[in-house]
Amino acid sequence: MIGKLKGLIDSYGEDYVLLDVGGVGYQVHCSARTLQHLPSPGEAAVLSIETYVREDQIKLFGFRTDQEREWFRLLQTVQGVGAKVALAVLGTLAPSDLANAIALRDKAAVARTPGVGPKVAERIVTELKDKAPAFANVDPAVVHLAGAVDDQRAPRPVADAISALVNLGYGQPQAAAAIASASRSAGESAETAQLIRLGLKELSK
């Protein structure tokens, strides 16, 4: 099984790179984001590899980091997500952005991927929500609050305050982060109006 390739860029195709390793050309399929970051033909490159062996073919998928490869694997544990869709998601969102989007239940961010509709985006966010926080770089309190709002477990004033900020045009993740911070400083007994006021102040920083 091939796990890593180090060689010279030979040429590029629409969704792959031909990597010359000691005179042998390996066709490696990559996300659009990975292809954009690879160097010009003739220059050296290193790719983490996921090898797919089928009855009729062997296919190599390449990634700039082991973390990106890990997300490629994780995405395919979701029902209805194959290699093509997983690559498309990673072409739209960097691994850290994908982790944040899932941790914050931001289905809209995932649905920006070409070929990924609202239902698939919702499955990705729902089925990977327990794994994403480990990769995310957002405040655990915000992740917890986003989950509570999504599952309709958040206190009413908190849910109403987030809803009010969303109605004002802020994104759900932004609103959840601002209200989480407001809730921390105002205490659990804070009313909706106070949370909105503090949340807006947080957003204007």
UniProtKB/TrEMBL annotation:
Gene3D superfamilies: 5' to 3' exonuclease, C-terminal subdomain, DNA helicase RuvA subunit, C-terminal domain, Nucleic acid-binding proteins. Residues 156-205 are annotated as: Domain III. Residues 1-64 are annotated as: Domain I. InterPro entries: DNA_helicase_Holl-junc_RuvA_I, Hlx-hairpin-Hlx_DNA-bd_motif, NA-bd_OB-fold, RuvA, RuvA_2-like, RuvA_C, RuvA_C_sf. GO terms for cellular component: cytoplasm; Holliday junction helicase complex; Holliday junction resolvase complex. Residues 73-92, 108-127 form the Helix-hairpin-helix DNA-binding motif class domain. Homotetramer. Forms an RuvA(8)-RuvB(12)-Holliday junction (HJ) complex. HJ DNA is sandwiched between 2 RuvA tetramers; dsDNA enters through RuvA and exits via RuvB. An RuvB hexamer assembles on each DNA strand where it exits the tetramer. Each RuvB hexamer is contacted by two RuvA subunits (via domain III) on 2 adjacent RuvB subunits; this complex drives branch migration. In the full resolvosome a probable DNA-RuvA(4)-RuvB(12)-RuvC(2) complex forms which resolves the HJ. Belongs to the RuvA family. This is Holliday junction branch migration complex subunit RuvA. It comes from Bradyrhizobium japonicum.
